[in-house]
Amino acid sequence: MPRLYIANESEILSGNVTDIYFVRTVEILKAHGLENTLVRVELHTYGLPKGYEWAVFAGLEEALKILENKPVNVYAMPEGTLFKPLEPLMVIEGPAKHIIPFETAVLGALRHSTSVATRAARIKKLAGNKQVLFFGLRSAHPAIAPMLDRAAYIGGCDAVSGVISRKYLGIEPKGTMPHILILIFGDPRSAWKAFDEVVSPEVPRIALADTMYDERVEALMAAETLKDKLFGVRFDTPSSRRGNMKLIVEEAKWTLKLHGYENVKIYVSGGVDECEIVELREVADGFGVGTSIAFPPSIDISADLIEKFVNGKWIPISKRGKIPGMKQVYRCRPGIKDFIVPWGAEPPVCPEGSKPKELLIKFLENGKLIRPLPTINEIRNYVLEQLEEIPEPKPTEECV
Length: 400
Fold this sequence. Notes:
Radius of gyration: 24 Å
CATH class of the largest domain: Alpha Beta
Number of helices: 13
Low-confidence stretches: none
Helix content: 25-40%
Number of strands: 18
CATH architecture of the largest domain: Alpha-Beta Barrel
Strand order of the largest sheet: 13-12-1-5-3-17-18
Distance between the termini: 49 Å
Mean pLDDT: 95
């Protein structure tokens, strides 16, 4: 019989979603009476993808869920914090046997969400005040659809398309219409009219306008069919027929304006990446972005032992190439002016005279959550607030 190859929540929380060498490590430690050694494990990244200067810390809520009710303390940056290499993102403190089996799951949750949120934030920053809608669920396994929508939204996307996000995120999904609707009706006008007749008036009328005819032609057809009801048109032309999309959008806008439809918005989707955002942001009113966000460059978060408790005190220790000892990160605003100092050291003096803020704060004490978690909209607003204070990133793709 066929099945879905997904781990359920209880399998993740029990530590069964882990690598075999972690299981063997705990067995060895137990055999030598070392399984209760108190340790501090730091999560960080020592390098970002090529062209990246910062990343967005995401997935914290899921990581805390994995570690909740275990006898550990957890310090972490608030979710949505923009960070740079070498900075500690999280520290897990407790008996080795209660940390080691969960490294795989915690890292997986943080790395995937952080990678998606970071790409979304870069695209949103490049798009400026233009809308960015996340349409990437078809790019990944359906089991992680809520996670993808959450990370993309946290990163700055203005909306997501997943229906299941109503349940998990409290976000109303948004989207237009697919080509299959047009093709089944056999005529764009009939499909647009049917959409208008059936779909709630609260949903903006955005007509897919590239199925059978030239984009300029279908855009005008949509405007003449729905008239004042038409909010916008979407061009989702495949690369084999695309041509110069900037000229296509400009041509459609010109034509719509000539016929008195200058208020009709134009959205572009289909393989949109950072380069296309930069190329089209002056002429398009919004973008539908899928694979570029759903399959981003990976933010390589790793976990390393930085201290262990010996004879009543914490002893700094680490493998070669990693910085030992518990640390704190202070931020001076505006921007990302961060200072890494030993835990308990005096805070730095900010260049602009602002008050330095501690970024590593305690979330779990002996496995219990000790502070309320922010809402998804509060996290997103935090990300957007930080994005306003930093320069625009350079697109990582080779823009021609």
